[in-house]
Specification:
Two copies of one chain form a homodimer. Chain A is of the alpha+beta class. Chain A has four helices and three strands, in the order αβααββα. The structure holds a DNA duplex (30 and 30 nucleotides).
Chain lengths: ~100, ~100
DNA sequence: CTTGACGCCTAGTTTTGCTAGGTATAGCCT
DNA sequence: AGGCTATACCTAGCAAAACTAGGCGTCAAG
């Protein structure tokens, strides 16, 4: 998977995962890998900064927890995050629809 | 259309257009707008540098022509370009399939 | 006690699309 | 004649974002 094809779509993926369940960064990477059959294998250096962006934008919030001696920062969607996800889903449909029209 | 969602996909679009007919840069922008119902409206500053990239990579070639007093640089796919397009189509399918799996 | 999995963080690099200008020709309107 | 729009190309500099390549610390298994 070339790196650039992901650009502009990582936020959508993170929001979609968090819509189903709150999760910490490392877990989000796992979930994306699982759900995509190993196609989406995001670097941690991609995910953590992206989560900060999303938190700064107010679409997710985070809280620390400790499980078996390991610190986790768990993220969950805010109400604005739910709206944002819906909007990004629409944008995704528009985009892929347009590309499909060109490719066909 | 947010700018970043296009990143990594412009080459696919250009190759797809050129697969149907050789075209010059300005015309490619028009064709993308038409085929996508105005969703894809690429800046010239996006398209021209992208075409140079593609030519440098050997997937398109260009030749000058003059029509009604105006210079045009017409691009067409090379054999390698045809292969590259096929590969990028596959990559596109993989990518959108993976995202769909996450979104569903 | 070393290795690997878990878990987080970040400075710097690279790629790439866009902005905002520039140049030039042709045709139409006033 | 002058100005405006469409056609057509070019490019320096900017900005966004994903990745590289490291770092830190905990825990369980060998």
């Amino acid at each position: 998977m070339r790196a650039e094809v992901l650009k502009g779509h990582v936020d959508l993926l993170l929001l979609a995962v968090l819509a189903d369940e709150p999760a910490h960064g490392y877990r989000i990477v796992e979930l994306l890998r699982e759900r995509s059959n190993d196609v989406l294998d995001l670097a941690e250096g991609t995910v953590y900064p992206a989560l900060y962006r999303l938190e700064r934008q107010g679409v997710v919030t985070s809280s620390w927890s400790t499980v078996e001696g390991r610190r986790r920062r768990v993220y969950r969607l805010t109400r604005r995050g739910v709206r944002e996800l819906a909007e990004r889903r629409r944008a995704w449909e528009d985009f892929t629809g347009a590309v499909r029209a060109v490719l066909s």
